[in-house]
Amino acid sequence: MAVSETTETVALIQSDAVAFGLIMAVLGLIFYTSSRQHGFWHKFYKHIPALLLCYFVPGALNSLGFFTADAGDNIYHISSRYLLPASLFLLTLSIDLKKIFGLGWRALAMFFTATVGIIIGGPLAIWLFHVISPEWVAGDVWKGMSTVAGSWIGGGANQAAMKELYNVEESLFGTMIAVDVLVAEIWMIGLLIMAKKSDGMDKMLGADNSKIEDLKRTVEKYTRENERVSHLNDYMIILGIAFAVVGLGHLVGSWLGPFFAQFDWAKEYSLDSHFLWLILTATFAGIGLSFTRTREYEHAGASKIGSVFIYVLVASIGMKMNLGEIYHNWQLFFVGAVWMLIHIILLFAVAKAIKAPAFFIAVGSKANVGGAASAPVVAAAFHPSLAPVGVLLAILGYAVGTFGAYLTAEMMRMVVAG
């Protein structure tokens, strides 16, 4: 099918610095209003999570033409490559590893359910529209959709692998990136709302969330019993350690990424990804130092600083969302939306059957669809202590991403071929 051309518009804000200033002002305003104890805002935030607005307001501003594409990309690059690994390190510093592993088999079950939902959802969506309106999915559309599968099961590296494997043309690939981002981010809005309503959802699912609540209470008790007044020295040491770990992560990535790039088998598991090694280094450094006296900096607010970085990351992710893209090639967004709907239906069906809590639905899905950049964000929306669970599952997604996407693509090809 033909792919429409988008019209170039001049952004209201041309400067990255001004764009960053605006989204920080937005974050400040959201936190100011969410801290109100009475009146309209108090009632408003009972129903709408502040984290959702931190994501949606920058997205709305971008859709209205406030930011250049470069501004969103540049701010996201800084946030994901520097602030994200720093936040993962700081949030992992107070981790109770035994209790995280004690969350049990349901976490893995929901992760693989999410993966299966994407693998079968793509071919089913293509089949449905092949029956209803064949021209929507004619030609090489299935090839383009293979890149969405790569992104939704693994991440950017897996998406690029599918693009190269099936020689997806640039115009179609650009459209598929828009489908990928917009459909996934609309689902993220749903996940953030789910985090706000998790207790009610757990009751509906008949889920046992006692282990999750136990982990939350352990972290909260540890923080409450040891928290102290923070000083400038504390903040400088916390930031010094965090960004030293980030620097180490980039160094490890610059060594191991090119090393594994020499091996085809390693590329299939994204072991050639600089970003993968960066995230792994930050996460395991946090886990390792959680057994040392460095953990005591949690008493001075290490996880609070990590949470600040997460909120900046959320806003930068929001800046990449453009609701106006629905107008162009809206047919493909329908296909992507049906695909995601199949994924969601399967998740809830399995969760109900095995009595998995809402947290496992959310983090299992986002570990696939969002990867290491957003899975910890969704996990932290339930509780900051749960962020490492998102990271660990997202890393598993990188391992199965290329294989899962290839399987999805071949099934879509067979559907189109009839």
TrEMBL record:
Keywords from the UniProt entry: Coiled coil, Membrane, Transmembrane, Transmembrane helix
Keyword Nucleotidyltransferase: no
Positions of transmembrane segments: 12-32, 44-69, 75-95, 107-129, 172-195, 235-255, 275-293, 305-324, 330-351, 358-383, 389-409
Coiled coil residues, start to end: 205-232
Xref: InterPro entries: DUF819
Protein name according to UniProt: Putative ATP synthase F0, A subunit
